[in-house]
Amino acid sequence: MRFLSYAWDWLKVPAQWHGSGGIPVRILEQLYYTGLSLLIAALIAIPLGILIGHTGRGAVLVVNLANAWRAIPTLGLLTLLAVTLGFSALAWLIPLVVLGIPPILVNTYEGIAGVEPELKDAARGMGMTSWQQVRKVEVPVAMPLIVLGLRTGAIFVVATATIAAYIGLGGLGRYIIDGLATDNYGEVAGGALFVVLLALAVQAIFVGVRRLAVPAGLRQQARQT
Amino acid sequence: MGARPEGHGVITFEGVTKRYPGGTVAVDDLNLEVPDGQTMVLVGPSGCGKTTTLRMINRLIDPSSGRILLDGQDIQQSDPPTLRRGIGYVIQQAGLFPHRTIEDNIGTVPLLIGWGKSKARDRARELMRLVGLDDSLARRYPYQLSGGQQQRVGVARALAADPPVLLMDEPFSAVDPIVRATLQDELLRLQAELHKTIVLVTHDVEEAIKVGDQVAIFRPHGRVAQVDSPERLLTAPADSYVESFLGFDRGIRRLSFLAASGLSLDDTAVISASLPAWEAAEQARRTGEPWLLVTGADQKPRGWVAADELRPLPREATAGDAQLRPYGHTFGVSTDSLRAALDATLLSPAGRAVGVDDQGRVVGVTSYERLGAAVEAGGPAAGPAGAAGAAGEAGEAGAAPAAEASHTGTA
Amino acid sequence: MDWQQVPTLVWESAKLGILPALFGLIISVPLGILCARWKWFYPPVLSGASVLYAIPSLALFVVLIPYTGLTDTTVIIPLTLFSLCVLIPNVVDGLRSVPEPVRQAATAMGFGQWRRLAQVELPISVPIVIAGLRVAVVSSISLATLGQLIGVSSLGYLLIDGYQRAFLTEILVGGGLIIALAVVCDLLLVLVRRMLTPWRPPRRRREQPEAVGDPVPALAGGTP
Predict the structure, then answer these.
(1) Is the predicted pLDDT of residue B392 greater than 70, yes or no?
(2) By residue range, what is the domain housing residue C118?
(3) Predicted complex ipTM exceeds 0.90
(4) With a CB-CB cutoff of 8 Å, which residues 63-82 of chain B face chain C?
(5) What is the reported pLDDT for C121?
(6) Residue B304's pLDDT is what?
(7) How many structural domains are present in chain C?
């Protein structure tokens, strides 16, 4: 396979594995950007999603967000921020977080809002306070969707981080962008290969997370859709 | 439409069994013949196999053993789509195609078998008129129609290609009772005009008795308890299962099948309003009647007058001048049943009901004695498992439906 | 800023947005029909599609370069694969949305399997499939801009050129046009749906335009 042979040619050079531009470093950088952004996005989006889902206020906003978001090009957002803010820590963190929020927010909202009214009734009938209701009933039931939101968010963030190399960010995207600029397809291929592997790994991690976080009964139910 | 050559709609079940993997027997060794041009109703509790039986006719389900003949031909020999295009099928939720107009829905089978679009649409309009749907609905879509209207479209659609056989699976269960009664009447009217072979499944025994020419009562697990005309079922149920299935007050319901024309009516208690009061009083004394029915010049009833109240009246007064009591409910002598006459008598304050002819003119009055005599003449209703030979012809009341050969299904 | 290029760029973006969705549709309909018919087929197909969907599009573009060079095709193929992730579930959901009494009635009237599919089930599925098309087209228009990074021309050019020259207006114009194009295409598809489905009851209140649920998340359409 041509692609793999290009990548291999580049990978087998030991120099790639050392130094500040080496593969391990870049991978760590990517993980760092992704992890931090996802964490911040989740810290914002999950509580917000729970609040909106539970109270129903602001739901219209969330719903329209889902549709509007698809139309906004990532590259546009990145270049816009880069030109207005210059390159700094904020320039890369903001778009990564901003792109991570919608999937987490929308899915969390849908998960909470989608909890059957009968369940909420039963919880209230048993004497739970609003907060207890959320914690003990709504969140567990919404777990499949919340995890799905996190998974999607992670994927988006990994992808955005890759592209952000264009505006100067490190990470695996660096190889792709630099390789394209210098016509070094081996480097491009190597970078792309790792990005693909990372994306698959992230997926696998979240399958594991799902297994841990989502009670078995709900997992089965969600699968039937 | 109209008269068809006889015999094309006979359906015969020969030893038909339907067994599902896992052991459930839905239909157990069914032998049944559906006569041509009549309505056969399959009725029974849930899970008794009546719907399965119906769906075997158009091969939506195939039997595990036994065979089914349509017009003498084994239906297994026809390829299902072709077979089904010659059989109309009506279901509870109508199943109208939401994406087609009403007229295109109705014209579905004609289009399928190759008629041109305009011919199919003309036919659709014809059928809309037949089932009582306004022409303006033709270009509408199903979502714009009410439940009752959708059901009518369903029936029209089933009749579009003029199939000899019509299958109906709980067609009226999903609509409210008033609409249901109207649709049942419409079905009877249609059948009187078209003479299709209809097999109808219902869980409502009243509906079965109302619309069926023949009714097959199913036991749980796919066996037939009795197949008979509604009248014979009510008169002579085959066993206690059938009797309890038919429900209580079977005796009174059976009276619906005895015609009121068999009643002998009393006309001595009927007087004209212009008759002088003293003559009326005389007549009352002679006949011993405490009440007399006063009629107008048109011979229509005006009210009851008490004999006691006639006597004190002045010499010149007529019967019509006396205080008249309401004459209550009437019943049609040639059109109504004994049950209607009994009902009218029960509701009448005088304990007598007024029988009228088609124009509403008084023919005579009943009494409980005369009713009793007519009921006895109609023949005793047998208890279960004792089908007396006397059950059958309704004696003087000749208008009862022609008696079919009594047929008790495999028990 | 060179305004003369803009119409060409808009046309390029439109092409790169619509073609993947169209090809995706052509593949999804037969696949979706099979998935709806053979229940065991659906999960693996869906899993396969979602794995692809999770891979950043830039990486996928790059993977194809040795095979298709730096042409439109390099962008169209991955975007088509992404659109499958939305369209296949929509085709399946569309077919499943056909009410059971309608399907039964069609069979009972003598429709064969294929005729029923063509004349009854697929037409009824149209609204849901179009909902999926809307997602696919809008996402593709947005994702196609990334192709500019490997030299495939689209409105993304304005974004990159604006960045390189630190020219904010150009970026804003580029971004604005991309969004406008997406909105126009979305509205056109709504119009198409209205024309194709006069039989639908008027919508009283729409929460969201039939966004596909599990397993494709609410913001499906491909990863940037």
Answers:
(1) no
(2) 3-196
(3) no
(4) 80-82
(5) 95
(6) 84
(7) 1
